[in-house]
Amino acid sequence: MQNALVTPHTSDSPSPPLRGKRLLFIVNEGAFLLSHRLSLAQAAQREGMDIYVACPHDASVSRLEALGFRHVHLSLSRWSSNPLKEIRTAFAILSVLRSVRPDLLHNVTIKPVIYGSLISRLSSTRAVVNSVSGLGYVFLSSGIIARLRLRIVMTLYCASLHRTGTFVIFQNQADRELFLKSRVIRKEQSVLIQGSGVNEEEFPPLNLPLAGPFTVLLVARLLREKGLAEFLDAADIILREHPEMKFIVAGDYPMGNPGAISREDFLRLKQHPAVRWVGFVDNIHSLLASCHAFCLPSYREGLSRALIEAAASGRPIVTTEVPGCRELVQDGVNGYLVPPMDPQGLAHALLRLAQLHAENPQQLATFGQASRALFLRGEFKESTVNEQTLALYSHALSLRRPVT
């Protein structure tokens, strides 16, 4: 892997040239930075960087400003494909870049990555870092229109990213290899950093519940690609023979997102007698404490934060054999891997864990302990992710890319 540039520096190494530098994040919404990049922004702030966040003005802005970050309003519609709106967004990003004059630009998710990288060429920005947090809706959709949209997106990725001084962070090796094979980027531009980091002290290992029915937890936005339909189908299969089992789904319904679950599945979720939908939950710890197993039947992820949190908390896991999920499970050691879009296989794997709970609870606890051990020996910890990303910031700034 081409990750030498993010090797942690020692006390004998020169301090990274971050103090006094302006770091600008461009994100679709401030809430995403708070949930997935807050610890990184605070780590950069502790290194002496001035933090700016460009995103639409929403309820998260007051918290961003309370943390000492400077908010810059950016009108950006995540799902719009209206050419006039997109042109206005491009000019708005150029205005932000010329106003803030960041030393380092960090773009997160598809539109900011493409627009921010492309438009940075017209500004004085010295270095650009992009986070590809999974391939998402555009890459998973099917049909003629979807294939055309994918071709356009890959062309735009190539035009915006294939440039000296621009770096791309991938969360799993499969996504990285896809971009390299497609020649969207060069190898020296790519960096593998596994996830956005989970704090091991905020997510300590939890004992499995001793009382109550076997309970399965799923945490995800209500998107088709998260496997919600398959989860509900698997629950129905299980309940025919084991009506005592319980299922919990935590996650908001993403209004306006074309990848949201169908109205039919949403009604089925809300009305299901054995599946409790609790909506968005800010503090997931109590739900993790109440479940015996964690499940995410996703079609593909960057690297699922929910799975990392479940592993850190010592939960047995059932997830799919796809990039961004399989990294958190050793099959038969801390859980089970199943094919995507396979309710029958999902039900079978969950029943195997339920049977352990009934017949050999100590073995189920061993699965949970193995999840915690996998989390600790991997590179999923918040401190590791932050250290690697700050090292990349230092490297990018040291190149002094010429302005074009």
Globally, the shape reads globular
Radius of gyration: 22 Å
Strand order of the largest sheet: 3-2-1-4-5-6-7
The share of residues in extended strands comes to: 15-25%
Helix content: 40-55%
Order of helices and strands: EHHEHEHEHEHHEHEEHEHEHEHEEHHH
Low-confidence stretches: 7-15
Largest sheet descriptor: 7 strands, parallel
Return the structural class: alpha/beta
Report the strand count: 13
Cα distance spanning the termini: 30 Å
Mean pLDDT: 90
Counted by DSSP, the helix tally is: 15
Structure description:
- By secondary structure, the chain is an alpha/beta fold.
- Helix content is 42%, strand content 15%.
- The protein has helices at 30-36, 38-46, 61-66, 83-100, 110-119, 136-140, 144-161, 173-181, 228-241, 263-271, 285-290, 305-312, 343-359, 361-377, 382-398; strands at residues 22-26, 50-55, 70-73, 104-108, 127-132, 166-170, 190-192, 215-219, 246-250, 275-279, 293-296, 317-320, 335-338.
- Strands 3-2-1-4-5-6-7 form a 7-stranded parallel sheet, with helices on both faces.
- β11, α12 and β12 form a beta-alpha-beta unit.
